[in-house]
Fold these 3 entries.
Entry 1:
Amino acid sequence: MLPVNCGSHADYQHFVVTNFRKYYPDPDALARSTWDIVERFWNLDLSFTDTFMADKYSKFGPAPRTPSSMQRSYLLSIDFKVTSLTEWAAQLKMNPLYAILSGFEPGNTPGVGTFYDFINRLWNSDDDHMSPHIHPLKTRVKKPKTKGTKADSVEKVTVAELLPSLENTVFNLDEQPYSSLFTIYQKEFLDVSVSTGLIHSDALALAGDGTPVVTSHRERKKRICKCKENGITDCKCDRYFSQPDCDIGWDSSRDCYYHGYDLYMLVDSQSDLPVFPHFSCASKHDSHGFLHAFFRMKSFLPDYTVSKVLLDSAHDAMPYYQYFKRENITPFIDLNGKGGRPSVYKNDFTIDKDGVPVCPSGCRMRRDGVEAAKGRMKFKCPKISHKNGCISCTCETPCSDARYGRTVHLVMKDNPRLFNNPPRSSKEWKLEYNARTSAERSNKREKLDFKLEDGRHRSTKMWYCRLYHILMLQHLDAWDLPPESTLKKMILDVA
């Protein structure tokens, strides 16, 4: 049978109030942290889930649980730091609070199998993984020579080749196995954050960063060939991998190898709220991870306009700057030092690590504005003095006879990577770039606050389901609660 719709969000709120009067007549008896969760879930409208998932159920058979109640319950399990669905199903039977907040009558709660059935309906594929179990052995990443640095890319394709390929690819959301998860996340959480002004979708300042997600202590694979029986122990034949979407990568923060995914997060830098996630294998370099996440986000959120991107030095590649210039996106990307700088500019000037011209005397030039029409930045001599209203050059070896000293124009098209606007030496650039850590803060919340890695799942389906519900909770936590608790008044029946 089709799921029985419990009614509107108002009906759910009435259900919670009625049962709280019975089981928790004194709201102050609950811990403050618990009450904060109660308030947020009481105000959380998940009625879209019931409508959206109606066609995912058969018209025959026993009546299933209401989808919104199942989703709310799964969200609660993550919020209350219960990482096992088996344990959560047991907790629902023992704790009336969990049952009531979920929307279940105490004593009549779903078993663990019902939760897995619900998750299966959220995954739009018969396969629990996105790659086949049988595939060739992958090239293992090399440990970096410097501690705390990321491993070099093992990709055979370059950024210059990958970017135009993904740019010209149309990603259809309906073809993605996580399409239902994304749709629910967008309609019930992301769009709400946009409507409340937390995220400005018309001028999005996007921060990006990859983070390791450990799924198991070791890689599990087995031979499917007869080479070992024939005395060949180092054959390159295909293997069967139990987690085909994962491989071995290098965790620069923990300074060790790990088996799992590389989670690339695109985050709104102003609110620290997640916008779009993408799982790749652990060996995926951030410069590639960003492109896979970014162009999928553009396809799935076509109404979003990106005005700025904030990325670390792993993304410092010329094709990035060229693309952002075409798309009228201002890049804030740190230099990695490997891209090099022109040895000489304008015959006798050099360029420093921040893209600022250095005069023959070794002084950094002073920025004097941007000539947008000509696509160039203007720099003047830093030794010019205006003391007592008199203009004079205080340099012992002046390189120009001009009254205002030597002027240098950096033509941005000459090197859009190095000649950044605003320049990396400016306060404007540093202030904006500091917001890049929003991606790191978002990753910290997912991994530490909501215990992403504690899921210990074996399928990409389960990892994506857990991840998207954690993102939902991040948005939920950011929404303001009413200054005065309506729920408490209703429980106490205060007029």
Entry 2:
Amino acid sequence: MTSGRGTEQRMEKFDAAFSRVQKDLAAQRFAAAHARLRRLNEAHLFPESRRWQYHAMEGHLLHMLGELDAALPHLRASWNIEGAPHAVRVELLSNYLMTLHYAADVSDAFLREEHGAWGRIFGDVPQFSHEKRRRAKIRIGYLSPSLSEHVVLNFAVPLFSGYDRTGFDVRIYSAGGADDDVTDWIAGMVDGYRNLAGMPEIAAAAAIHADEIDILFDLAGHTAGGRTLRIAAYKPAPVQITGIGYFDTTGVPAIDYVLGDPVCDPPGMEELFFEKILRLPHTHLCFTPPERFAPYENIVRRPHMPVVFGSFNNFSKITDDTLRLWAEILHAVPEARLVLKNVNADAAAPELMRARAARADIDLRRIDVRSGTRDYLRDYLDVDIILDTYPYQGGGTTCEALLMGLPVVTRAGTRHGARFGTSILYNAGLGELVADTADAYVERAVLLARGGELLAALHGAVRRMMRASPLMDGAQYVRDMEAAYRMIWERYLNEEA
């Protein structure tokens, strides 16, 4: 039996050691943090009540170190074992579900099954009741984790700025984060704004319910720890949609629809969602470029000699399988180079990526690995062809690349999250750059690199094609979205209780 003082000393030792792990993590010393964590675990210092914390940290560090397959069992265990407080447990579950999309060998069926865990946790939470009402204006609420500068805003702005004010009343809810100039700008576009930061989920849901929202649109899904979904689980609005910021089913019983389109969600995809698919006729994404694109508006591109491939996605999206395909492309185009630009300014990421690239048989003399920077658009000038990631495709980065005049080669998958890059390219009139298999992906990249005249022509046309496409026709996008709102609202009003 351990004495009270012995237990106290053991906890003091654990807290001191775990604090050092956290300091290494904060400083992005992932390898050092991982080594400390392993020693802590091997010394059996983790109290049983905090085993979840070990698995959460182990999973996160392995993911940061590029060992995703090893990370996933720990991330799954972190929310699936006893000990974690309920609020922490559901956040860990959302983080696990989000991370699953980075893995190459996770099946569509398994993804759906794992998302179903959310319904089992939240399926019996009390839900608000609603009185059916027909008003002159349909009241739309948009729920976001934060309204500060974020890529999701680049796809949501038309919904805030261009809506029919005679037929719709629009409110925005921020579920966290401090207000700033971006918040003020967005709030000034709509009929109402409320910051729900710091409120318990049930209280936040009550505030939305009190505003008599007809249709609530969740813009985040399982990003940001699922905070918005924890609010939506209480059904503060009679009709609820998710989309734009997430790329899969949520598993939340209170969510009625997921936003999609005919390319991203062809017939047969219904079985992958707990929600109904609400397909817009063209694209479910519409891109509004931020002001930082202005200096590059009139650039004239000429292919580099030799050609330069690039990827500007989060390094976490780059699987080992993808690196091996890029190695094949570089072997087939012997003089070509590869620029990898991270989304985040992660000091440790470039060296880790170089090590992974070397293991994938990429000659490090031909690869330029760069950390994230604020003026990352400048780096697009150093590249000729963008290579998309798989199965977690680029969304905002793909739109940015097209607007910078660069062709993007992507591989089509079999689920929404592995097809939104495909939808973007088809909507831009660039469907020929979409490959159905890994071999075809390599083939298209190689042919494009070798086709000097074709590549030059694309450099001259891609930006124009992007701007003329449904992807940047905000007015049409809003009309399509509002037609969908009217349809599902009428459907709800006409449903029998």
Entry 3:
Amino acid sequence: MSAPDDTKKGLVEPKTLKGFRDLMPADMIARNAVVERIRVVYEKYGFVPADTPVLEYLTTLIGTGGEDANKQLFRLESPERESIAMRYDHTVSFARFVAQYPEELKLPFRRYTIGPVFRADKPKRGRYRQFVQFDIDAAGSECVAVDAEIVAAMADVMRTAGLGRGEFQIRINNRKLVDACVIGCGLTDEKVQKRVLSVIDKLQEDGVQQVREKLGAGCIDESGAPIEGVGLSASAIDKIMEFISTTGVSRADTLNSLARLLPKTQVSDAAVQEMSDLNQAVGSLRLDETEAIFDPSLVRGLLYYSGPVFEAHLPAAPQFGSVMGGGRYDRLLGRFRLPSIPATGASIGVDRFMDALVLIGKIKTTPTTTKVLVLSLRGVPTSELLSIANDLRAEGIPTEVFFGDSKVGFRDQLSAANAKQVPVAVILGEDELKAGNVSIKDLRAGRQARSGIQDREEYKKSGKAGQVTIPRADLVKTVKQMLWPDRSPLA
């Protein structure tokens, strides 16, 4: 809380909105590095960058994701008094975009985009009201091979983040299979079907017993409040639970088991064939049975999904749920134009993904991008320091000159560099200046030399570790060698 005196002075208390957060340099540097790796993956698959506004007309967004999505919309009014809202994902905006520019885009079209989305959700770790999503989408093809490529790109993203075999898993299902199961239980009312899908979607979070209760008479939540059930019969619940619990030794085995459980209808036959074709395509892309599995419990909550759906999970960080997900949404573009254009895609929640990677030790953060800090010492003209920085920057080396308080001395400047984990310091004192030299200190070597030292005298002796004094003309060459000792002359 602000102090009374501060209020009288007109000061405003600095604070962030609930569910929103500020990101420190270390977080942003790590995020940018991960985003760049993801971008390279997406471009390998032929996706090109495109962007859409953060704000859309309310009519564009409302009703596309179901009641839960409607409740999560941040609704606003434009200066023209039009009802607008902040996008809750990139998918609906992409559908509007493709419908608006079909001739310019030349279908089939693949794009990637990165940017913030907004949801008035209950905040918790890994879940914020503003977060960054990095999406890929493909419009204009009904072929499930495109879905398989989406899954393959998801797997490549996981690998490029440093996740190996067994450290990620992509779950795959088909909404048509789930629909066939629900209809096979005699549930023809659309509202009931939606409620059943919503309950199934929470299986990973709620557990088997609570899902059974929600499908039936209902249950009591953790706070003691009653949750109304769907009211299905015991036999219908048994059929649904058997279906969503089915597993096999392989994707094909799981699919065969599901096929035996489904009623023999045109819808179920088409869904099984679609998944069989998808499995063949996924196999052709060399995704093994540990990386990509068929999971009949996967639904994904948004209503616009109409075919294959997929999610990526990290077994070592189950509390984050899915870190990437998507699916086919062939009917969504029909909201904007007829005939509808088929489409599929996937989205990675960058912030949630980052939090999970930090938790399992796949990301090492650093508070700066600076590779060299040029110390500012008394008696040395600023022009000389700027000249050093300019020479290093000309060679692509991120360099900063210490322009802090003039009273901050040599040791404190080195301490500041170490605190930021800067690798190299350049020291130009009066003695070096007169001799036409410069001293270069490998701060990493110094930190390593001091690690574990208990004796004060020994610690003081370690202060010169990794330091050399060289002619000024050899500055750039020496710094490069310190930073990248293994880099070849052609690199």
